[in-house]
Design brief:
By secondary structure, the protein is α/β, with parallel strands linked by helices. The chain has ten helices and 15 strands. The radius of gyration is 21 Å and the shape is elongated.
């Protein structure tokens, strides 16, 4: 099995892939679009993509989900533990500049301010660690995973520096092949996207079926259609399986109000949701 992720070796996506598929061939891609495009072209590939973070919200990959419409096989929550990484032998008091992804810097803002570091935004966390390993400057450090420290032979100068303990990122495992679990005991998530017909109160009317049938929506996000601010797609998750009669009735009601509707996947809810 081949699993694609965006970023450099040691990225949190890399770490998540190792947790789920420890025996798979895990391949780095430069961009999210590269991941989606390759998976769309080859149904034997799967990708693991960060979708949202508990602290800072959505990652911003929704437009690619709308564009490529890959099937979602599973979700996985990864506990995010940010660490300050520096060159071998460097000390915390020597650090002046800190490099990382914008979200990682935001999630560690208290530690950064406390130490008076100058923030430098980089494309990704692991790439920042790689940058530090090549810079040879003891005044520079990266915020990244412990896996990055191991890969790029850096020292961990401070552990778990995130503002909020219990920080976690939700990852989606996707591909172009279609499959879904049978309806059995367990908690399921059904993920779908839709575009409403252009009429007044369309969103309000379209959601009535979920209330009537007692279906809980756990995600509802709008995204503007390309080159338009008057037409929107919606990305939605609900608690339940597509084969559940109440879910089916709710989606049938929604479909009456839609120009476009597409099921992205049905999958077991990660046990992390119970915490």
């Amino acid at each position: 099995m081949k699993i694609l992720y965006q970023g450099s070796p040691g990225a949190y996506s890399h770490l998540a892939a190792l947790e789920i598929y420890p025996n798979a061939e895990i391949i780095a891609c430069k961009t999210f679009d590269e991941c989606f495009t390759k998976a769309k072209e080859d149904n034997k590939l799967k990708i693991i993509i960060p979708e949202s973070n508990r602290i800072t919200g959505n990652i911003g990959i929704e437009y690619l989900m709308f564009k490529h419409r890959l099937n979602i096989f599973a979700e996985h929550f990864l506990q995010i533990e940010h660490n300050l990484l520096g060159l071998k032998g460097s000390k915390l008091g020597e650090i002046k500049n800190v490099f990382s992804h914008a979200q990682a810097l935001s999630q560690c803002s208290n530690f950064i301010k406390k130490n008076g570091f100058i923030e430098n935004v980089h494309a990704d966390t692991a790439g920042s660690a790689e940058l530090i390993s090549k810079s040879k400057k003891k005044s520079e450090a990266a915020i990244a995973s412990k896996l990055s420290a191991k890969i790029y032979e850096l020292d961990v100068l401070a552990y778990n520096i995130e503002n909020e303990k219990g920080n976690a990122t939700r990852f989606l495992i996707m591909g172009s092949s279609i499959s879904q679990p049978e309806l059995k005991k367990g908690k399921y998530i059904t993920s779908f996207l839709f575009k409403l017909k252009s009429k007044p109160a369309a969103l309000y009317q379209s959601l009535g079926g979920f209330a009537i049938n007692g279906i809980n929506l756990t995600k509802l996000q709008s995204y503007p259609e390309k080159n338009s601010f008057s037409s929107y797609f919606f990305l939605c998750d609900l608690d339940g399986h597509l084969e559940d009669p109440k879910v089916q009735k709710s989606l049938e009601e929604l479909g009456l109000h839609c120009e476009d509707f597409h099921v992205l996947g049905v999958f077991l809810a990660d046990k992390f949701r119970e915490k």
